[in-house]
Amino acid sequence: MIPVTKPYLPSREKLNRYLDDIYDSNVLTNNGPLVQTLTSRLEDFLEVENLLLVSNGTLALQIAYRALGINKLVDRKPAEAITTPFTFIATASSLKWDGIQPSFSDIDPESWCIAPESIEAQITLQTRAIIPVHVFGNACDVEAIGRIAHKYNLKVIYDASHAFGVKYKGESLLKQGDAATLSFHATKLFHTGEGGAIVFKRQEDLERARKMINFGITAPESMEEIGINAKMSELQAAMGLSVLDEMQDNLRARKKAWEGYYQKVPSHFTKQKINKNITYNYAYFPVMLKNQDEVKKLLLFLAEKNIFPRRYFYPSLESVKFLENEKPMPVSASVSSRILCLPLYFGCDFERVVDSIWRLY
User: Fold this and answer.
1) Is 188 a catalytic site residue?
2) Which of 167, 175, 188, 231 is catalytic?
3) Are residues 51 and 117 in the same domain?
4) Alpha helices in 26-115 (DSSP H)
5) Helix (H, G, I), strand (E, B), or coil: what is residue 94?
6) N or C, which end of the chain is more exposed by having fewer CB within 10 Å?
């Protein structure tokens, strides 16, 4: 079987060495030595500062909202945040969960990221933030979004779940905005089994978030503000350190598969327009087909050959009723109905996938 993705599993010998460290220290959580080591190594690898590890990518978003204060009521009404409907549900549902109403802004038909020109029309007196997504690791138009945020005094929190290691104009893409969040879920390019991180622009926001992820506790008898348990464990950090040790091997393999797809898939498959200013991470290979019927036909055909790409992201989130956002998003709705992510992971038999696709065409 060829699934859409597989977790990268590092060498057992390497992982066991980190597990031995856990047994030696007898520390399993509460900002243990492996979490501290992983924090430092990720800051070096990603070339960022103010990185905070957390237990998953959804909590990374929620902690960022609260650390930056965008969850507070505006004139006794819920705050609003503008985001994209073409994303994983957690981007929008995490806002709703925190009492913030997501307001969708349509996407660019080529990059599939939020279209800056559509953002301003969605801004109201309740708007506190913009939550763009670097879709499939492709950079948003960060300059245009930054100008809009400055004009209206809005916070910008980038959902960078797909953008691990991506550089923009020679610097980490994670430096853009007031904060950027990462998911370290098992299926991601870099993972800790479950996990996530936030990269803050300002150290004071990092320090506030650091309190929040430990119940608001700052000392054995001191609770300074409301908090939650969002700490990463030592076991998660052990997996992350093992994966990071082998990151270059993983990247080389994914790049080879990505480039193979790019050169060999049928020419009528529309590919994402990658921002010319980025160094890409080869995390995903999405294609857009002519219509939804072709998507379903290809899915069925490949399933018969035990190959399982995925409609990712589908459906477009303006259609999700509990998000309470009924404005039409025609570009996102169209792209979402025609999108397909091809299998991509370390060791993926992309040649078999390509050969099978061509058997249909």
Assistant:
1) yes
2) 188
3) yes
4) 33-46, 57-67, 89-97
5) helix
6) N
